[in-house]
């Protein structure tokens, strides 16, 4: 499990899971679950396009993640945000099916991209993934106060001089970056579970934002590591474990809240 | 452009029939879904249904039965965990969605490793319009008709609850029961579309035509009629184009799902200016608009 060819996977998974826990906290407090689900999914055709055009996979993913942000942002200006999200998602996925139909040899990899694979990471992928994750984490730290304030009350944030529209866009970009790099390991469909499960459990366990953020990162790391270890042992897909553990974390957080087990932690 | 034998081709006939049925049911249910702000729930149910689609390959039962069963289970799960606030509702939807997709991952893995169905991921997630078993037609159309009938019966209370939940509560509408019934009808719609254009793309038929229609129409009935029209044009147009595309790039036909999505998104884009022009015309024709119905803004 810790043999040389798995080292890259452990490094990347740790970076990606920590970032997912960080970004996921704001996905949960801001209520942007749909965007967090749609962005990784609309990023997925980027890998197919990259294979088709022969460019770097991470680059393809990042480009499509940004296309997803542009689509959601542009369509939200004129209609309902959730309709905008849904339509951007299907448009980019529709493009994905087209790419896939034209490159027959690529269709074997669809499954890995959708549901995750632990052996898909090469040593040369680590540096770009680490850079993108560092940028996303840095942006979260910089925008910590306005993001938190904006999620509690848009009016209050506006009164303090933050532009909600611009903040929304900034957050979408951070979300897109974090999803793009998590995709090759966890899979397009379950990046979102790694973001939402730990963060929602953390939020149910404590009301203090700093503590919740730390808990969210910790849970996300634990889930990520456990999923990879189990996937290695059983050969079952990483995504199955991530999705399942995410739901368990949420259920535990909610029952903890209900029975007041963690009352002392709540400030 | 349509080569000879289009309508005489067996798989095409099945695709036209089931695709048409899926488009009609999705468009009708979609109007209520968009009005109630449940696009995410609709998309999530479709994704969750993929676990059923992939399990059906493993169990050797009809794909539609699998899609249906899992979508209905997902609907029940969301309703059971239930949440009042929209934010919490989205979160619950997301958690159920994640767990469902985890199952899909597992079933597809088992499909690929035990039944050597290497294309299973593609079929379930991106649809198999031209590979539907002809025997499924009566079952699919029957379930679709049932879902439509329920929508017609629930038309008034659903509309009321979509426009004004408080008024609906005063009138004694049982929001919880209605919500569950709506989710179940939604489950039928997404299962039908999942079988045709794929689980993760069925959102195109559910949300696209309805959202486009609601930008243009000011009355719910017209929104439904328009959504059904757009849905049918997209599906049948998509089938015809995909059939034709076998001659464009030899060896690689273009997928139906791609054309359906493009037509749907194009009609949504076109609906904006058309709706705006109509609104201006109404504003000049009538001194004061009296309609209490606000389409999605």
TrEMBL record, chain A:
This chain's protein is named Metal ABC transporter permease
Which one Pfam family would you cite for this protein? ABC-3
> What is the membrane topology listed in the Swiss-Prot or TrEMBL record?
Multi-pass membrane protein
Q: Could you list the residue ranges forming a coiled coil in this record?
A: none
Q: Which SUPFAM superfamilies match?
A: ABC transporter involved in vitamin B12 uptake, BtuC
Q: Which GO terms describe its biological process?
A: transmembrane transport
Tell where it localizes.
Cell membrane; Membrane
| Transmembrane intervals | 7-29, 49-72, 84-106, 126-148, 169-192, 212-233, 240-257
Family, according to the entry, reads as follows: Belongs to the ABC-3 integral membrane protein family.
Question: Origin, by domain of life?
Answer: Bacteria
Keywords attached to this Swiss-Prot or TrEMBL record, sorted alphabetically, are:
Membrane, Transmembrane, Transmembrane helix, Transport
Gene Ontology CC: ATP-binding cassette (ABC) transporter complex
From TrEMBL, chain B:
Domain of life of the source: Bacteria
**In terms of one coarse class, where is the protein primarily found?**
membrane
What subcellular locations does the record give? Answer: Cell membrane; Membrane
Q: Does the entry feature the keyword Protein biosynthesis, yes or no?
A: no
Identify the keywords attached in UniProt to this record, alphabetized: Membrane, Transmembrane, Transmembrane helix, Transport
List the GO terms this entry assigns under cellular component, sorted alphabetically. ATP-binding cassette (ABC) transporter complex
A Gene Ontology biological process in which this protein takes part is: transmembrane transport
Task: Please give the Pfam families that the UniProt record associates with this protein.
Answer: ABC-3
> Which family is this protein grouped under?
Belongs to the ABC-3 integral membrane protein family.
Instruction: Note the PANTHER family from the entry.
Output: ABC-TRANSPORTER METAL-BINDING PROTEIN, IRON TRANSPORT SYSTEM MEMBRANE PROTEIN HI_0360-RELATED
Under which name does UniProt file this protein? Metal ABC transporter permease
Q: Which source organism does the UniProt entry give?
A: Acidiphilium acidophilum (Thiobacillus acidophilus)
